[in-house]
Amino acid sequence: MIIDCDVHNSWNSSQELLPYLPPYWRDVLARGELPGGRDSFPHAHRPWLHPEGFMRTDAIPPGGGTPGSDYELMRTQLLDRYDVEYAILGGDEGIEVSTLANPHLASALARAANDWMVQEWLGRDPRLKGSIVVAPQDPAGAAEEIRRIGEHPDMVQVIVSSGSQRPYGDPFYWPIFQAAAEMGLPVAAHLGGQGGVNANPTGTGPPSYFWEAHALLCETGMGHVASLIAHGVFEKLPELRFLLIECGVAWLPAILWRLDADYKALRKETPWLDRLPSDVAREHIRLTTQPLEQPKDVRHLWSALEAIDGERTLLFATDYPHWDFDDPDRVRIPPAWRDRVLRENARELYRLPPPRAAAPQTQASTS
Amino acid sequence: MTPPAGEHRPGFYACRSDEIEPGGRVIRELNGRSVGVFNVDGRFYALRNRCPHAGGALCLGPVTGTTLPARDFSFVYGMQGRILRCAWHGWEFEIATGRCLPDPRMRAKTYPVVVEDGAVYVMI
Lengths: 367, 124
Fold this sequence. Notes:
The complex is a heterodimer.
Chain A: E1 2-7, H1 23-31, H2 71-79, E2 84-89, H3 103-122, E3 128-133, H4 139-149, E4 155-161, H5 174-183, E5 187-190, H6 210-216, H7 218-230, H8 233-236, E6 242-245, H9 252-266, H10 277-284, E7 285-288, H11 298-307, H12 310-313, E8 314-315, H13 338-350, H14 363-366
Parallel strand pairs in A: 1-2, 2-3, 3-4, 4-5, 5-6, 6-7, 7-8
Helix pairs in contact in A: 3-4, 4-5
Chain B: E1 6-8, E2 11-16, E3 25-30, E4 33-40, E5 43-48, E6 63-67, E7 77-85, E8 92-94, E9 110-111, E10 113-116, E11 119-122
Antiparallel strand pairs in B: 1-2, 2-11, 3-4, 4-5, 5-9, 6-7, 7-8, 10-11
């Protein structure tokens, strides 16, 4: 039994959000310019186009449509097949609202995506838990949205894209973290949002090829970890947890070693921080595993994971139905850690109840 | 005439040869295994529907070509219709041989195919 911390549920068309938008924004989505066809979602696209599309081709629903849009297929290919106790749904295109210049449009779309999540998905199956999408370029609106829908018992985290206008420790974003901490929700940054107003996906300027860029986008995770720790976000909000989703894992030890060394020399810059960055990270930063790095010699991976106390900081994820899916039956996690990484770390982070006695019964399987 | 499904010595009946157009495929359960049978320019090939990389649904992926090695920095698109890309992670395999293009140490499981009287048999 596993808890899958990165599952993508999709709409087939952005127009599915129309009932969840207030009148002005409904008119904009129904009649205004869209980046693709009438079904496309308002966002700025990343500058790299995946040459094969980024979906598992066996996840296209039998009747056509977007992978991740068909609950029954998700049940067959993921929830039932891998004995998933909970799947943390992150939506799919929703986090791309962070690329829009207009913060009011971005927040309106995020609110609609959240109501769509609750109405269209969370009631279908007790295994499904939702993420609250917010527009980080509108911190006040984001905080209001977290407080509005954060009471919903099946909404278990706040989610933003890893692509951003500034590193997330910047005080500009603090209203988001304050609201999340107040509601008892972790904040997750999921790989994405590289485009539009988020103009700096990597420090060198944009790479050229999809595989090259995809491997490097962990760089955004490095920036957020350093920024959150240095700005003292966790000193101000000691209950807060920050989760990096799909941003890689094995780079973290090296970055923490460097942060520790430089902090020791120049700690006077950040007098609010009275412990090592690596100590802050161990307590407050969590990472999902997928796509877990795959060195030839697995001992090299495990020594990296040990350096960040991976037994307690890693959360398993598949990324269903995307092209770089990790199979829970094959993922290389130290055997002694499997219970914690595959389930218990997520249960703690999301405050999920202990395992149910009997296997969950879905509406579909009992009908 | 359609031969009965199931065992046929020395192989397993998969389909009639006219059931698969050139470029097409069928997926069959044969002897307890999921197997993809492909028609590449009139020749038939069979591969196990399980990717040696990560166990994905290999035979549900697209049949494509790929860029040929080019030290002169050109794009030469070749092997059209002879490459199967795994449905999960997109690793490329040569349909005829099971050869794995990104990792020569890896190979997709292939089975010999016999076509007899318009019927396609997979030798498992």
